[in-house]
Amino acid sequence: MSKGLTWRVSLILLFLLLSFLYLTPTLVGKLPPWWKGVLPKDKIHLGLDLQGGTHLVMEVETQKAVEGTLDLIATDLEDSLTAQNLRFKRIGRTGPDRIQLVLYDKGTAETAEKLVKKKYPEMEILPTVEEGGFVNLQLRMNEKTAQDRKDKAVAQALETIRNRIDQFGVSEPVIAREGLNHIVVQLPGIKDPKRAIELIGRTARLEFKLVDENVTPSTTPLPEDDEILTEKKTDPTTGAVSEIPLVVKKKAMITGDLLTDAQVRIDSQFNQPYVAIEFNSTGAKLFDQVTATNVGKRFAIVLDNNIYSAPVIRERISGGSAQITGSFTEKEASDLAIVLRAGSLPAPVQIIQNVTVGPSLGADSIHKGLLAGLIGVALVVCFMAVYYKLAGLVANLGMVLNIIYLMGALAALGATLTLPGIAAIVLLIGMSVDSNVLIFERIREELRLGKTPKAGLDAGYDKAFLTIMDSHVTTLITAAVLFQFGTGPVKGFAVSLSLGIIINLFTSLLATKVVFDFVLARKHVKSLSI
Fold this sequence. Notes:
Elements: H1 3-28, E1 45-46, H2 48-51, E2 53-60, H3 62-83, E3 88-93, E4 98-103, H4 106-119, E5 123-125, E6 129-131, E7 134-141, H5 143-168, E8 174-178, E9 182-188, H6 193-201, E10 206-210, E11 226-234, E12 241-249, E13 254-255, E14 259-266, E15 273-279, H7 281-293, E16 299-303, E17 306-309, E18 321-324, H8 330-342, E19 349-357, H9 359-413, E20 416-417, H10 419-448, H11 453-485, H12 489-522
Parallel strand pairs: 1-20, 11-17
Antiparallel strand pairs: 2-9, 2-19, 3-4, 4-7, 5-7, 6-7, 8-9, 10-13, 10-16, 11-12, 14-15, 15-18, 16-17
């Protein structure tokens, strides 16, 4: 065997060994105890359409993100003017893109304008209006800044949802942006879709607000800086749920943005789960200041405008730790800890499409897909063997190598196999044969010209090389476009197609020629069976 033939055979066998190595977890199921360390352990991942699961399309309410930004600016302006001992009647958002400052005099209005220009240059300052003895200053967020905030809200929502799903423990989820404000989420093999949906869609805006005990919920009207929220309590013996309205300050003293960790703990005294939270250095300092100045007052812990608990601050709390207690089950406490660790959504999300694929449908899809693939392979094998005789058997060997290499590559790369992916594999069987047909027809032409089997074989492969390369490169470009801009099933098709094209170039141009070269080197062949 020549040196050139030896390294080509070695390369084919090496790829074959690696393919079976990576396919072992999929083929064997339960791995033996000695299968450890660097040896692959992951099976080929099945997509949503093959193993069942949940498909969600979510819409991010991006306008709420803009309004939230305006609320933060308004709060900051309140603090800044108060710090400079400047009096004002009210500062707050008055529309989807505006903030109104109601001031007592022109001097304060001028100072406020300078402050806005310095800190918030993106805010447009509208002409001041004097009305009823007050000076009204209107600020408007420009369209470019508002659109930028909306884009960031979708991107942030995407990452937050991804973090939550990762902590929830879903294998191979698909999370992708679609259009301006939509997010597509696919959760293959999930066993509790309702819990997952609740976890993903929860805004998780955590706020600590002071309870205004000088005002009762029945008071009309409420002060401008107050609001009524509800605290739900569950009776541990009867399970009855009661709702207690509380008047709290609209302004949050501390928000969940300052959290670094949230873990479920069990209360040793009452054997009830609670969520222990840790603040970062800024949050710890702020929590220390707030609790020090409000000893004896009730501090409401609010998540998504629902009060979880409203304990009395007994003493100053240093160290940056706190507890969220309530009538939790262990699962509820665990989900709350997950969303707090992953962070709050920058804007609410609405689920506009929810499709659940059952595992039985997935199993049926696998069965039909494999059956179609086997029928396709059988027909191709028969045609090649009849029409191209012994050379057809060589082409069939290349096709089998194609499939083994492709499945091994899917396992090695951790790619997800979908029903369109199976369709791509069936398509590649045809492409594999098509490449060999081009080569064999070229070889026939050379043999008709009177060339020897060896010379005809080499000339046939050389002349077919560019044609095969051109067709495969153009198909690969198409697959790349499908992968870049497609979602879900389209990406599954593109992944299988891309890998298959690269592998088919190797098997059709190198692997099958090795078989011919091996036979011609070992035997004195006068004519090719083609």
